[in-house]
Design brief:
The protein is of the alpha/beta class and 184 residues long. It has a single domain, classed as Vaccinia Virus protein VP39 (Rossmann fold). It has 5 helices and 9 strands. A 7-stranded mixed β-sheet has the order 5-4-3-6-7-9-8, with helices on both faces. Strand 6, helix 4 and strand 7 form a beta-alpha-beta unit. The protein is globular and about 40 Å long. The protein starts with a strand and ends with a strand.
Length: 184
């Protein structure tokens, strides 16, 4: 998991970003590569309420244990963890076309299997579902992943075009990150 905090300053404002995508009560959301702090899946769980569900997916058992601990502390009974390799198609076991929103937050730069990750995200999205992608921008900064590991926006656009998804918005997700919203 990439640390979302640096020098005491929050790099990504999860609540503000989630409000941008229009999360509502009762939605079903998946966070692919959720990370141990549950920085996005925990606020999402609160926003969808008891009638909604959030799936926190990660390959690392210790990461999921951290999310489970935070769930207990915050009383998020609607968040379920799934241990799966998000680089493998159908590995999550989540039903086809069942999610209103899928999030890929700071995860694409960690892989070379972008198409497989995006294919899994699209598979579990409902028709007209929303895909939220946030990753490191291409600027040189003294922290974060190496520039050559960072995914380019035009690569994401091209891959999602192949998967029959349409970009509906692009935004600055913070000083060092870009955000993209797609519809299935």
């Amino acid at each position: 998991m990439t640390n979302l905090f640096y020098g005491g300053n929050k790099l990504l404002d999860a609540k503000k970003i989630l409000e941008r995508v229009g999360i509502a009560e009762g939605m079903k959301i998946t966070d692919l590569g959720c990370g141990g702090a549950g920085h996005f899946c925990m606020p999402a769980a609160h926003l969808v309420g008891n009638s909604g569900t959030v799936y926190a997916v990660d390959i690392q058992k210790t990461v999921l244990e951290g999310v489970k601990s935070r769930c207990k502390i915050e009383g998020a009974n609607n968040l379920k963890t799934i241990q799966a390799n998000v680089e493998s198609y159908k590995s999550t076991g989540i039903e086809d076309g069942s999610c209103d929103l899928v999030m890929l937050i700071n995860i694409l730069f960690q892989s070379h299997k972008h198409f497989d990750m995006l294919k899994e995200a699209i598979r579990i999205l409902k028709n007209s579902g929303t895909l939220l992608i946030i990753d490191w921008n291409q600027s040189v900064i003294p922290f974060g992943p190496p520039i050559e590991s960072r995914v380019k926006k035009n690569e994401i656009n091209a891959l999602l075009y192949k998967l029959a998804s349409e970009r509906i918005n692009e935004f600055d997700a913070g000083k060092y990150h870009f955000g993209m919203i797609f519809k299935k």
